[in-house]
Specification:
The chain is of the alpha+beta class. The protein is built from 1 helix and 4 strands, in the order ββββα. The relative contact order is 0.18.
């Protein structure tokens, strides 16, 4: 797994983007990482994008930016 970047969502949560392999398939994971007194670790919230779909997702995100 290779971390590509982090974005602070709020005081206790970061959004982490990683390149990873799952069952031999390369993909991009976008997950929440929580750091609090009660719990520190990965949340269940997130999504995995197969690497072959990344360009398509990026095109959609580019439309959001220009809207």
């Amino acid at each position: 797994m290779s971390e590509l970047g982090r974005l602070r969502k709020n005081e206790t949560t970061e959004i982490v983007v990683q390149e990873s392999e799952f069952h031999g398939s390369l993909g991009i994971d976008i997950r929440e990482y929580i750091t609090s007194q009660k719990y520190t670790g990965w949340s269940k919230n997130g999504i995995r994008i197969p690497i072959e779909k990344w360009k398509e997702l990026k095109e959609i995100l580019d439309k959001v930016q220009s809207a």
